[in-house]
Amino acid sequence: MYCKCGGLEEAHRIFAKHSRRGVVLWTAIIGGYSDAGDSRAALHLFKQMLLDGTKPNKVTPTTFVAALTSCSSLATLPVGKAIHATIAETGCSSIPLVQSSLINFYGKCGSLKLARRIFEAMDDKTMVNSWTAVITGYAQHGEMEHARKIFERMQQEGVKPDEVTFINVLSACSHAGIVEDACYFFIAMTQELGLAAGIEHYGCLIDLLGRSGWLNEAEALVKKMTVQPDSVLWSSLLGSSRVHGNVKVAKHAAQRLIELEPENAASYVQLSNTYTVWKPCDAATRSA
Fold first, then answer.
1. Which of 205, 251, 250, 239 is CA-nearest to residue 224?
2. What is the DSSP string of the chain?
3. pTM of the model
4. Buried-state track 103-130, b at ≥16 Cβ within 10 A, e below 16
5. Repeats (PPR): which ranges (predicted)?
6. pLDDT digits (tens, 9 = 90+) for 130-178
7. Where do the domains of the chain lie?
8. Quick one: which of 246, 243, 193 has its CA closest to 215?
9. 187-204: per-residue pLDDT in tens?
């Protein structure tokens, strides 16, 4: 209960009082730290659990899921491989939830062949998470041809991508700076599959368009949004406009940002910097 409510210190205090710590108790505390984003603490506890002579089993596979999630966050390949070995020892290798976590882990660490091998060996490929993990892994490392093929195969096999699939893929495309493929997946989501884009989907694509210098296209997409743009999105667009010298879009983004956060001085500063750097260039261009 304390873990789920964010009271990790209290949860750990109660955990430390127990002299007999079964796998369920270990799973709760490891999962609590993993969910809170404290990956190092989660992995430290996982190691302590094994040293204590306790191993997860087929009844508690979420222990492995939490540990692998922490490994993915830290991109610690050797530790993840050691956990994979423990998974094999305990007979949990064929559990779909664990397999999906392994695919996600190896994909994020760049071991794409191993991630793919685990995926292809799965008897049950009906979990959206497994497909999402493979596609995201390829996208994160710029292997967009493979990402598209798996995405198409996913639909051919009757597994429908969900909103989380597209958040992960669009985020991966954004980090990799791949505009064309991001647009491909966004169109597939909104037009072909009829899924509603949320603020996170729009945010990934608009941030990518802005950083790539496609400011007018980014602004046009903002105007077509079916949800209200937030301050994070406008701030991203303002920052990209300053970098690429689009004073018009910068002014629009700053005005919207000021409306949302009138007390935030950063918006005024960024707009002022944009004018200072780029307005003389505009004037010189016109007079030439």
1. 205
2. -TTTTT-HHHHHHHHHH-SS--HHHHHHHHHHHHHTT-HHHHHHHHHHHHHTT----TT-THHHHHHHHHHHHHT-HHHHHHHHHHHHHTT-TT-HHHHHHHHHHHHHTT-HHHHHHHHHH-S----HHHHHHHHHHHHHTT-HHHHHHHHHHHHHTTPPP-HHHHHHHHHHHHHHT-HHHHHHHHHIIIIIS-PPP-HHHHHHHHHHHHHTT-HHHHHHHHHT-SS---HHHHHHHHHHHHHHT-HHHHHHHHHHHHHH-TT-HHHHHHHHHHHHHHHHHHHHHHH-
3. 0.82
4. bbbbbbbebbebbbebbeeeeebeeebb
5. 22-56, 127-161
6. 999 999 999 999 999 999 999 999 999 999 999 999 999 999 999 889 9
7. 1-93
8. 246
9. 999 999 999 999 999 999
Give me the count of residues in the chain: 288
Asked if residues 115 and 137 have their Cβ atoms less than 8 Å apart, the reply is: yes
Amino acid identity for residue 212 in this structure: S
